[in-house]
Each structure stands twice: as C-alpha cells, then as structure tokens.
Amino acid sequence: QVQLVESGGGLVQPGGSLRVSCVVSRFPLDYYAIGWFRQAPGKEREGVSCISTSDGSTYYADSVKGRFTISRDNAKNTVYLQMNSLKPEDTAVYYCAADPLGPSVPLRCYTPYDYWGQGTQVTVSS
C-alpha cells in the first residue's frame, strides 16, 4: 500500500509561483510513475506532470510546459511540483498519484493510477 499526502496549495495572483509537495509513504518506489493531476470544477481530471522512478523520465502537459517543473527528493520521500507564471486556468484541485510501471514500461501520465492523495486546492486569482 502506498500513501500520498499533498500540501502547499493556496491562493496566488496571476503570474505568481507556488510549489506543491507530495510525501510518499514508501520511498524510493522502484518502477513507479508518480504524477500530479488536477481537476477543475466541471472538468475531467487531467495529467499535469509525471515522473518515472526507474529512469527519471518526465512528462508535461502542453498547457504547463515551460512553466511547471516536477522533481523528487529521495531523502525526504517527497515529489514536488514547482509552478511558475501561474494563470487563472491553472485553478484546480491538485492530486498526487502513484502507479506501478514495471521495468522497461514507458511513463504514462493519464488515469487510471492505483494510489491517490487527498488533493490540495490551488487558486489563481487577483
């Protein structure tokens, strides 16, 4: 069983920055995908950014490329999502999730994922 706990959400003005964190109960996870997903009211949950624990490969949705950065700190059992140049359309509940990948399996950043955190609200508004 893998448990994930997000933190760091909040209210930020357009153009601002925010970093959300995800503490993973079992770390390091070999051959897992760990990702950040978001869901805005009335919209489907979408994959924002994901990272493979086996080879470090990453994925970014087109809407966040160049603005968001995913990273991990094995010593702190934590995966981060640094969000810069935030826009109102980035407003959503952000979820951390983990899913076993298996050796040589390419990273995917779309549901279903097996394990989910409770989510943290990010609001971009002036």
Task: Give an account of the 3D structure.
By secondary structure, the protein is mostly beta strands. Helices cover 0% and strands 48% of the residues. The protein contains no helices and eleven strands. It has strands at residues 4-7, 10-12, 18-24, 32-39, 46-52, 58-60, 68-73, 78-83, 92-100, 115-116, 120-124. Strands 2, 4, 5, 6, 9, 10 and 11 form a seven-stranded mixed beta sheet that branches. Strand 4 and strand 5 (46-52) form a beta hairpin. It is globular. The relative contact order is 0.33.
Task: Briefly say what this structure is.
With 126 residues, the chain is an all-beta fold. Helices cover 0% and strands 48% of the residues. The protein has strands at 4-7, 10-12, 18-24, 32-39, 46-52, 58-60, 68-73, 78-83, 92-100, 115-116, 120-124.
List keywords for this structure.
126 residues; mainly beta; seven-stranded mixed β-sheet; four-stranded antiparallel β-sheet; 11 strands; globular
